[in-house]
Amino acid sequence: MDILYLHTFGKAFIPKKIRPNLNSYIGKAGYEEVSYSFFGAIFWVSAIIAYFTYFGKVYPLLNGQNPVTFFVLTFLSWASVMLLVIAILVFITYFYINIKIYNRTKELEELLPEYLSLVSTNIKGGFSFEKALWESIKPELGILAKEIALVSKKVMTGNDVKDALIEFSNKYDSPILKRNINLIIGEVESGGKVAHVIDRIIHNLKKTQLLKKEMAANTVTYMFFIGALVMFVCPILFALSFQLFHVIINFMGNLNTNVSPATSFINISGQVLDPKDYKNFSIAAIAIVGVSSSFIISVIEKGDFKNAFRYVPLFVLTGESVYFLSTIVLGALFSGIIS
Question: 3.40.50, 1.10.287, 1.20.81, 1.20.58: which CATH number matches 108-210?
């Protein structure tokens, strides 16, 4: 049963021309098919938000306009809100799927040496290459086991092993996977020692993984330094500047009260900045610094910014917590000066 016509609206929301590409893209994230009901839900959510936005904010402003102006502005405002909400939700979904694809790709690359070791052992034991691919599938290999199972099923149903492996390697944006699959295919087609080539690939993959771990270990000092700055030093400095801001406002207020305008050569105007505005600025600045630092650390550690989102909650939440706690503590220490 298509509740609220979610599936129908979802299919209408996705153009036919991009549906094949969308299926391929969703498959990289581990989904077997596109959930059109999800896109239908996005449509209804955007419509509900547009409804409350229109009658809460826009309608009172348009009430009293002539019918043509009222209709045109109503259509434009309603459509703009819906398109904006849809764009935001689609971007968040796209972002989430990209991260999931990235994590699956990295997991697949880490499992590849273990699987190829089993393939090499089976080939040395007398199995053909196609048979070795199937016999090497183990449940503990997770994602890689499912992908190779699909490759083996395609080969068993009459597809060429080369085409099946190339299709598998092209499914993921992984230079490591594509390069090594091409090496194996080339050796299989030439009739050479496939097991020997696989052993060399395994050796190179393990060596590459070891080098990456060593590089990550060598950058731990920089990561700790950046993390300490973001989570502790930066929030404490913002909290300190917030208290100094209060002291300056209090000092200038006293000057403005005690100094006679006739005898003063300093023109002291009223309060320029509200402390609440400065506090909101500090909160936003700490969040921006936390997100930016997460990207920097991800590039230092993994060489890719997509791994940054594992650090964002830690940096932002810790930084904001330290800021509020420091504000309370420093507020108590500066209370005598401010008063």
Answer: 1.20.81
